[in-house]
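Summary for the steering committee. One of the milestones for this cycle was to obtain a three-dimensional model of the protein with Broken Fe4S4 cluster bound, which we needed before selecting residues for the alanine scan. The sequence and ligand used are listed below.
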Amino acid sequence: MAISRTGCEGCNDITCTSTKEVLSQDSAKNVITAYDRVKSRGMSACLFGSSGTCCRNCNMGPCQIIDGVDEMIGICGATADTVAARNYARTIAAGSAAHTDHAREMVKGFIATAKGETPHEIKDVDKLMELAEVFEVDTKGKDKNEIALEVGELALADFGKQDDKPVTMLKRAPKKRQELWERLGVEPRGIDREVVEVLHRTHMGVDQEYKNIMLQGSRCAIGDGWGSSMLSTELTDIMFGTPVPIRAIVDLGVLRTDQVNVTVHGHEPLLAESLCLAAQDEEILALAKKAGATGINLAGVCCTGNEILMRRGIPVAAGFIQQEMALATGAIEAMVVDVQCIMQSVAEVAKSFHTDIITTNYRAKMTGAVHIQFEEEDALGSAKEILKKAISNYKKRGDFYIPQESKSDVVVGFSHETINYMLGGRFRGSYRPLNDNIINGRIRGVAAIVGCDNFKMSDNHHEIVARELIKNDILVLATGCAATALGRVGLLRPEAAKEAGPGLAEVCETVGMPPVLHCGSCVDNSRLLIAATAMVKEGGLGDDISDLPLAGTATSWMSEKAVAIGQYFVSSGVFVIFQNLPVTGAKKFNKFMTEGMEEIYGGVWAIEEDPLKLAQKMIAHIDKKRAALGIDKKRERVLFDMAMRRDLGGGGLQDVGCTGPVK
Ligand code: SF4
Ligand code: MSK
C-alpha cells in the first residue's frame, strides 16, 4: 500500500513554522516525510517492543513475554525482568558503541594532526596541558605537537585496554563517586571491552539476573560518558578550539538563494572542519562564481551542525526532525553525511530534486547516494572534491522555496570553561558565583535538556519543558538536537531572560547570557559531567554529583545513544526523566530502574509522558535536593547590589569573545 502524502494537512503535531511552510509548497508536493509515514502506519507501536519484553536473542524465539503469565515466559525460561534488562543493556551498548567509534575517529584525527598529517592544528594548548596532566605525560622540554602525540596515543590505548585498571579519564569524577564505582565494581576497564562484555552477558544463557545485568549496563555507560565521549569532546576542543560564545542563526531560513547550499549532517567534525576550510579556497570560490553563485553556503544539520555552529558560528539549517524538510526546500545542492542519525529516507527525498546525498564514510553508505570517501590524510583534497560535486549541481536547481523569515538569532558556545569564566567574573574564573546563586536561591537549580527529536511526539516538547524550567528559575543547559529546537524558538538569545523567573533573569541580565545555554553536540554531554564535577569541587552543594540540585531529560528521545547518555548520568548520580522507556513490561526491573537505582547511585530514572508534568517532576527533584542540602528556605530573593553586579558582570559575553554581528 502506498504511503499517503499528507503534506501539512492535519499537521496538528507540527508547531514549527518553517516545516509547515516548506511542506505546503508546490515544490514539495511529492515529498513523503516521516510525518506521513507515522500517520500512514495506522497502528500503534508493538506493545512488547515498547515495554521491553520482546526477545530475539536466540532462534528458539522470538519470544514475547507477558510478566506474571506463566505460559508467556521465554522458551528458555527467561523472565520479563531478564529480557527487559538484557534489551536495555544492549541499547546502552549500541549507543555507547556509536559514541566510542566516533571518539576513536577523533582521537586518530588528533594523532594525525599532532603528526602534521592534516590541515588542522593544536589550538587549545591550555586544555592540552590539562589532559597531559590527566594522562601523566611529562611535558618538560616538549613542543605542543609532541605532547599531543603522547596524549593521543595514551587516549587511544584506553579504548582497547586489557588490564583491569579503570580507564584514565575516570579520575576526573568527584572522589566520592570514584570510590562508589570502585565499591560497586562498575569502573570501566577498557572502553571497547565494556561494550563487548554487555553483548556477551546478554547473549542467550549467560547473565540472567536483572540487577547484575544492569551493573554491566552502567559500567558500559560510564565508559561512554567519562571515557569515549569525554575524550572526543576534549580532543576536538584542543584541535579545533574550545567553544566560546558566538552569535549565529538557526532554522531553514539560513539557506541562501544566491549561493551553493551544502549541508553537513551527522556527527564527526573532522570532515565538516575540512569543508569549512575548503569553502574558503580560491579555486572553489572561483568555480562557484563560474557556476553563477556568489559563494558556498555551508549549513549544519544535527550534531555535525552543532559542532561547527559552536566553534565557527556556521548556521544550522535543521535538527534531526527537519532533515527531510531541508531537502524539501529544493535549494540544497548537496547534503554531505557522515555517521549517525541520517535517515535513509533522505536519499528518496533527494530524488525529487537536483540534490546529491554524498556519503563520506566507509562505515555509512546508502543506496541512492553518491559516495566520496573522506580521506583523513588528504582532508582538504576530499573536501574540495565534495564541494566541486555540489557546485556542479547549482545550475540544475529547479523550483525551490526557502522560508526566508525562518531564522532565529542564537548565542551558542557555552563550554564548561566559558561557564566557569562568565559566571566567575573577570578575575576569578570559578563556579563560586554559580554555587552562591544556587545557595541564595536566585538560581533554583540546573537542568539538562539533551538529545533528539522524535516524529511520534509533537515537535514542541523541548520548548514546553524549557519554558517551565526557566520560569521557575532553573538554568538550562542544552545539547544536541534539543538545543537546535530551543534555538528555533528563540530561547538561546540573551533576550529570552525576560521569560525566566526573577532570580534567573537577574543573573542572566547581569551577565548578558541566555537562560538556556547551548553546550554542544550530543557527544558533548560530557561537558555537563565536568560542569557538575566543578560545582561539587567548588563546595557548598554537597560532596558528590548526587547532592546537587540537578536534573536531566532527553525529552523526545529517539536514538540508542540517548539511553546510554541517560544511564551514564544516572550512574553519575543524576535524576533523569524520559517520556517513555522500554522497561514497563517488566515489573521488578521497572521498579529497580525507577526506584532501586537511587539507593545504589543516588541518581535514578523516571518516566513521564506529559512534557509539562515532566518539567514539574524535574523541579520537584531539584527542590528535594535543595531541602536535603538545607538551602530550601533561602529562596527569598536577594537583589544584586552594585558591587555584586560588578563582580559578576566582569565575565560577560563580550569578555569571553562573543563575536560577530548576527548575519
Ligand atoms: Fe526466547 Fe530465551 Fe531465545 Fe530470548 S533467549 S528468544 S527468551 S528462547
Ligand atoms: S544528532 S543522537 S538526533 S541529538 Fe546528535 Fe540529534 Fe539525537 Fe542524533
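Key point for the committee: The pocket of Broken Fe4S4 cluster (ligand 2) is lined by residues 267, 302-303, 320, 340-341, 451-452, 480-481, 521-522, 558-559, 561 (CB under 6 Å).
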